[in-house]
Amino acid sequence: xxxxxxxxxxxTTVASGAALLLVLALxxxxxxxxxxxxxxxxxLCVPVALLxxxxxxxxxxxxxxxxxxxxxxxxxxxATPQAQAGWDWPxxxxxxxxxxxxxxxxxxxxxxxxxxxxxxxxxRRDDGLYQAAIATSGLPAVTGLWRPRILLPADFERRYxxxxxxxxxAHERVHVRRGDLVANAFAALLCCLFWFNPWLHFGLRRFRxxxxxxxxxxxxxxxxxxxxxxxxxxxxxxxxxxxxxxxCHWQARHPLKERIDMLKRPTPSPLHWTLALLLAxxxxxxxxxxxxxxxxxxxxxxxxxxxxxxxxxxxxxxYGGVDGQGVLNQWVQAGEEAxxxxxxxxxxxxxxxxxxxxxxxxxxxVRMRIERGDPGTVVAxxxxxxxxxxxxxxxxxxxxxxxxxxxxxxxxxxxxxREATEARMxxxxxxxxxxxxxxxxxxxxxxxxxx
Length: 451
Fold this sequence. Notes:
Strands 1-2-4-3-5 form a five-stranded mixed beta sheet. Strands 8, 9, 10, 11 and 12 form a five-stranded antiparallel beta sheet that branches. Helix 1 (about 1-35) packs antiparallel against helix 3 and helix 6 packs across helix 8 (about 200-220). Helix content is about 45%, strand content about 15%. The model is unreliable at about 60-85, about 300-305 and about 435-450 (pLDDT under 50). The longest helix is centred in the first third of the chain and has 33 residues, at about 1-35. Strand 10 (about 365-370) and strand 11 (about 375-380) form a beta hairpin. The protein is α+β, with helices and mostly antiparallel strands.
């Protein structure tokens, strides 16, 4: 389980990181051409690419599978070195990641609580807004994921003129209508999950800046003659140096000069809004598809419920580079475990196999668990996609790269009577010569091999 979680963490880190770098490269050129809202919309690529990795790829046709799973006369599974004493990295890294994620969550929770306590008592106004008891920095702001609240400083009426007050409140309401609180909460969650990724923390500050610039652009689009008043309201605002994870407030990290410069730009035309929407949608869809397509396809599972066996499984196992003695034929139902053992002591190999009908007609899926030693240690769990009556092979190498264990196999579904199926299996073995019942040349394997 830890290994699977570690693999998912690596895949999502790579996908989200690639999308993040793409956005960082495009945000400034897009803002210059299409406006701040278009640059802000580009950030949709990051969650889309991350979530796309979690979607299943589905199954592929057998011959379109990666090389390790292709069907030839034989299938060779990539070797896994012999288990040796040392660190199990997934077992070590996953607790470390979880510790970092919980620590990041505690830090963000502390920042949120510190901001809230700095407001003092909140008073609900007749207009539905909330006013702090003290003139704290960072206000006006909006907080509350489920029930957003617009928070105003205690000196709101004295600090701003009537027009400036209307513009400031319009700014906060744009945050609420556009769903920026949800976006910030998701960004905070990503920072907790990927606390080890410095690019994500770097990108978060640019994300917040693009969010504020886009909000400014929306306000000016609705009040095109109030640019000067809006800029003066910015200059009167007390910026808060501390972050607010779950909310939108006037942060010192938002470059004021850049925000003032944005007020001088023309308001985007309807054509600019349309192009921005198309660009964000197309880029997000492309990034999501690329992240999804880059994942390995899942192996075909049994899809034909009518073909549940029995199957005749023939195996010949060898170890230490010596051919095994005899062929072990076993009848198994779909999903039933068929066990064969070879050797003894440290050279004892246990091969547990299950058979199921494949996704494509005439194909079968063989899942194996290979163990070594007594008691056994799992060294590989290969999955093979084979055609009925054709030979496949699994080869396990030791640390030096030499073949330590090899299992040749052939599978047939029940065709007619069991005797007829067994006769056909013997005929195929004689024709191909691939599952050879000859005795081994090395006498040390003769007494140990059981199949």
